[in-house]
Design a protein that fits this description.
The structure is a single chain. The chain has four domains: 7-109, Trypsin-like serine proteases (Thrombin, subunit H, Beta Barrel); 132-224, Thrombin, subunit H; 230-323, Pdz3 Domain (Roll), CATH 2.30.42; 337-429, PDZ domain (Pdz3 Domain, Roll), CATH 2.30.42.10. The chain is built from ten helices and 27 strands. It has helices at residues 2-9, 35-42, 73-76, 211-224, 241-246, 265-269, 288-295, 326-338, 371-375, 394-404, and strands spanning 12-21, 52-64, 68-71, 79-85, 91-93, 95-100, 105-109, 132-137, 145-160, 163-171, 183-185, 191-198, 206-210, 230-231, 234-238, 255-260, 276-280, 283-284, 303-310, 313-320, 322-323, 339-343, 361-366, 382-386, 389-390, 409-416, 419-426. A seven-stranded antiparallel sheet has the order 5-4-1-2-3-7-6. The protein has a six-stranded antiparallel β-barrel with strand order 8-9-10-13-12-11. Strand 11 and strand 12 (191-198) form a beta hairpin. Helix 8 crosses helix 10 (394-404). Residues 23-50 and 348-355 have low confidence and may be disordered.
C-alpha cells in the first residue's frame, strides 16, 4: 500500500478556483436587441453592484504527461480562474478543456516544462466488494491526505441537490470536502475511480465515478471539447398498477416501450414496441425517470445492453448509442416537449409598427396534454433562452437542444408580450 501511494501521490494536484457570484439584488433580466423591452424593464431592474469572488477547493489527477488533469465538474463550475498546485509545489494557471455536468467530470490543461507524473489507469469493471481501496486528496485544504477503506458497494445511485448520478462506486474510505476530483486507487496504485460525492447523513460513506466511465468522457472532451449527447430512438413510459400486474412485475417496476424510431439504434438492436425494459447497462430502471437519467451517463458511440422482458422471457440486447445532432435534437424536442417552433422575426403584436424583434423564436403549435402545455406554454410565446443560452434563431434552438436533451430538466426564458418569465420542463418525467 505504501508503494501504491508513493507511485500515485506525485500525480495528485490541488485545485482552487475563483468564481463570479451574483450579488444580492442583481437582476438576471436581459433582452439584447429589444429596445421596447429594455425600456419597459429599465425602471424595474435593480442596480448592478460589484460582484464578489468566491474561492473553492478540490483535487485533481494528472492523466497525461503533457498536462491533462481530470477532476469533478462541480469543482470548476463557473470558474473565472483555475489554479493548480502540484505535489512539488509548482503552481500553474489551468484552462478548461471541457466539462460534462451529467457525469460530474471536467478536464483541465496546464503547460509545464518536461513530462509530468501520471497515475496509471486501471479498470473498474472487475472490482469486487471488499476490495481494498485508497483515496488521496486535499480535504479541508490539507494537501495529499491519504485514507484507506474497501469497496462497500457497486452501481450505486446518488442524489445531490437536483441531480442524480448513477453507477457509482461506494467506499468507506474517508472522503471529505476538498477530496472531490481526487483519485480512488486499487492496491497496485492504479486509478479506478474519481472521488466525487459525500453522503452527509453518515460517516464512512463516500462515492467515486468508475474509471471505465471516466475514460469514455475524457475521450469525448479531448476530441470535441464536450460530451456529444447520445440517442437511441426510443420512447418509454412508467408501468401503472394494471400494466405491472399484466407483466407480472408488481413491486419490481420497469418501463414500457411505447415507440421506436425506424432505423434508430434501438430499432437496429431489436427493441420493439411493447417490450418492457428492466435494466440499462448494470442498472435496474424501475421508472422512466431512472431510465432517462441512467442514459445520460453514456456519450454518443457507447456500447451498452438493455435487459428486456418480451412475451414472458428476459433477454439482453446490445446496442451502440447514436449521435444526437442538431436536426435530430430539434425533432426530439418537438416529440418530447410537444411543441413546434418557427423563426421569431415577426412582431410581438400584429399592429406593432416597429422593426421585427431580432432575438428569440416563436412557439407554433402546443400539443394537448404535452410537457409544453402542462408547463404553461402557449402558441405565440417567444423562447429567448434555453438553459441560459441565448436563442436568436432556429439553428441556435437546435444546438441548445443537443445539450438540453442530456439533462433531466430544461429551463426556458419565455417572453409573452412585454413580460418575461422562466419555465422548467421536467424531461426525465416524460
Amino acid at each position: 500500500m505504501v508503494k501504491a501511494v508513493d507511485r500515485a501521490g506525485a500525480a495528485v494536484v490541488n485545485i482552487s478556483t475563483e468564481t463570479l457570484r451574483r450579488s444580492e439584488g442583481e437582476s438576471s433580466w436581459s433582452f439584447p436587441g429589444d429596445r421596447l423591452l429594455e425600456e419597459f424593464f429599465r425602471d424595474f431592474l435593480a442596480p448592478l453592484p460589484g460582484r464578489r469572488s468566491r474561492t473553492s477547493l478540490g483535487s485533481g489527477v494528472i492523466i497525461d504527461p503533457k498536462g491533462l488533469i481530470l477532476t469533478n465538474e462541480h469543482v470548476v463550475r463557473g470558474a473565472k480562474k483555475i489554479r493548480v498546485v502540484l505535489a512539488d509545489h509548482r503552481e500553474f494557471r489551468a484552462e478548461l478543456v471541457g466539462s460534462d455536468p451529467p457525469s460530474d467530470l471536467a478536464l483541465l490543461r496546464i503547460s509545464a516544462r518536461g513530462k509530468l507524473p501520471t497515475i496509471p489507469l486501471g479498470r473498474s469493471d472487475d472490482l469486487m466488494i471488499g476490495e481494498t481501496v485508497i483515496a488521496i486528496g486535499n480535504p479541508f485544504g490539507l494537501s495529499h491526505t491519504v485514507t484507506t477503506g474497501v469497496v462497500s458497494a457497486l452501481n450505486r445511485s446518488v442524489r445531490t441537490g437536483d441531480r442524480v448520478y448513477h453507477d457509482f462506486i461506494q467506499t468507506d474510505a474517508a472522503i471529505n470536502p476538498g477530496n472531490s476530483g481526487g483519485p480512488l486507487l486499487n492496491i497496485d496504485g492504479e486509478l479506478i475511480g474519481i472521488n466525487t460525492a459525500i453522503y452527509r447523513k453518515g460517516e464512512g460513506v463516500g462515492f467515486a465515478i468508475p474509471v471505465d466511465r471516466a475514460k469514455r468522457i475524457v475521450e469525448e472532451l479531448i476530441r470535441y471539447g464536450e460530451v456529444r449527447p447520445s440517442w437511441i430512438g426510443i420512447e418509454v413510459q412508467d408501468l401503472d398498477e394494471s400494466l405491472a400486474r399484466y407483466f407480472r412485475l408488481e413491486g419490481r417496476g420497469g418501463v414500457l416501450v411505447t415507440g421506436v424510431v425506424s432505423k434508430g439504434p434501438a430499432d437496429q438492436a431489436g427493441i420493439r414496441k411493447g417490450d418492457v425494459i428492466l435494466g440499462l447497462g448494470p442498472l435496474f430502471v424501475p421508472s422512466s425517470l431512472d431510465f432517462y437519467e441512467a442514459l445520460l451517463a453514456y456519450p454518443a458511440g457507447s456500447a451498452l445492453s438493455l435487459t428486456v422482458l418480451r412475451r414472458g422471457r428476459i433477454r439482453k440486447l446490445p446496442l451502440t448509442t447514436g449521435v444526437l445532432d442538431p436536426k435530430r435534437a430539434g425533432e426530439e424536442a418537438r416529440r418530447i416537449l410537444g411543441l413546434t417552433v418557427e423563426e421569431g422575426n415577426r412582431p410581438l403584436r400584429e399592429d406593432q409598427s416597429e422593426e421585427p424583434t431580432p432575438v428569440g423564436i416563436l412557439v407554433g403549435e402546443v400539443r394537448p396534454q404535452s410537457l409544453a402545455q402542462r408547463a404553461g406554454l402557449r402558441p405565440g410565446d417567444r423562447i429567448r433562452e434555453v438553459d441560459g443560452l441565448l436563442i436568436r434563431d432556429l439553428d441556435d434552438y437546435r444546438r441548445a437542444m443537443v445539450k438540453a436533451m442530456r439533462r433531466s430538466r430544461i429551463v426556458l426564458l419565455i417572453q409573452r408580450g412585454p413580460y418575461g418569465y422562466r419555465l422548467t420542463l421536467e424531461l426525465a418525467r416524460r
